Amino acid sequence: MAPDSETLYGFTPVAASAHTLLSSVSPSSAAPFISVAETPVPETALARRINTYAQSHLPLPTYNHSLRVYHFGLAMRRHLFPSWTFTDETYFLACLLHDIGATEDNLTSTKLSFEFFGGLIALNVLQETTDSSQDTAAPRDQAESVAEAIIRHQDLCSTGKITAVGQLLQLATIFDNTGAYAECVHPATIEDVSHHFPRMSWSHCFAATIRRENELKPWSHTTTLGEDAFPAKVLGNKLMEPFE
Q1: What sign does the CA torsion over 177, 179, 183, 188 have?
Q2: Statement: residue 54 has pLDDT above 60
Q3: What is the rounded radius of gyration, in angstroms, for the C-alpha atoms of the chain?
Q4: pTM of this prediction exceeds 0.85
Q5: To which H or E segment does residue 196 belong?
Q6: Which fold has domain 3-16+42-234?
Q7: What pLDDT does residue 28 have?
Q8: Which of 7, 169, 207, 222 shows a CA-CA span of 20 to 30 A to 99?
Q9: Which one, of 191, 204, 200, 212, lies nearest residue 235 by Cα?
Q10: Domain segments of the chain: what residues?
Q11: Is the pLDDT of residue 164 over 70?
């Protein structure tokens, strides 16, 4: 690993337990309003290529969810974890690709759990060096950071460690999907992000995806969150209900 990879690509180890991590930070004030305009998406050649890929491979509700996770996550980082200095590009790539394994085509093309298959897809897509992408390939360390974060974004552990970029992806996805950690993001930020990237009945879409994977792969990692309990949490997301 290159000497600066830990800083640039988010390999800093942090507590895997969200409860432990959030209990260890003491913000001096309540979460501030941070607008979408204050957390712009990266405009690097790599970010543009992967954004185009995501737009062409993800259903619109899933793509919008991915962008909400990006903006919510950066709002959380600014408020709670200012020492996490990995690049916005790395986090953006992880957000765009974190549910790539959950599309219908990808769910039905492998026996792997969707997060694991998604991580493999991301690793390959990010490092592509075809004629059209040879100048926009991610460094291997960055691609591996994104893949690791995707593989573990539903790995809700109570012990151990996870990368900083992986933890932020996990916090923001659970926040958007279930409304957990409501105190971490200002209500006006939720409203602004949801206005720019409408939910389009996301809770029902995602709950259906959970049930679809559990039907196809009763061994899937998603079952560790509760075969009935997890989709019920998603459908019972009161924080996001006004924006459904």
Answers
A1: positive
A2: yes
A3: 17
A4: yes
A5: helix 187-196
A6: Hypothetical protein af1432 (1.10.3210)
A7: 77
A8: 7
A9: 204
A10: 3-16+42-234
A11: yes
